[in-house]
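--- STAGE predict ---
source: upstream dedup step, 1 unique chain passed
mode: sequence only
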Amino acid sequence: MKKILFILGPNLNMVGIRDVNTYGTQTAGSINNDVKAWADEMGLELEIFQSNHEGEIIDKIHAAYGNKDGIMINAGALTHYSYALTDAISAVHIPTVETHMSNIGAREEFRRKSVISPVCIGTVAGFGKYSYYLGLRALQMRFAQNDADEKRSEAE
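--- STAGE serialize ---
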């Protein structure tokens, strides 16, 4: 079973309370339960971690090295300026999918640029909580492709 670390950054514990026009009224805990159920259905082992502190998130990414097969991250506002987070993702060489509930490309100018995108295998944004479902599916498909490639090279 592939192990996934799902990281939620600053203020994402307040989903369902803050900016309901953007994020909706479903609570963070309820969304996390949905994401956990989706991961279970996909045969993925999921650890969910939320922090409002950049250093804690970086430490968690470092701890994933050698222990997790994939990372899914909604870095919140850190997406737009944390080069330290970018370096942490790059350092661990773990396939990482960037996710956002909102369409960051359609929001305020400062939210339109992601500094972590260049070190992620892809980005899913704008589908509400379903961005997380799609992020998990992307990782699942990546693992399946890697397994197929590995079997093919063993056969050669």
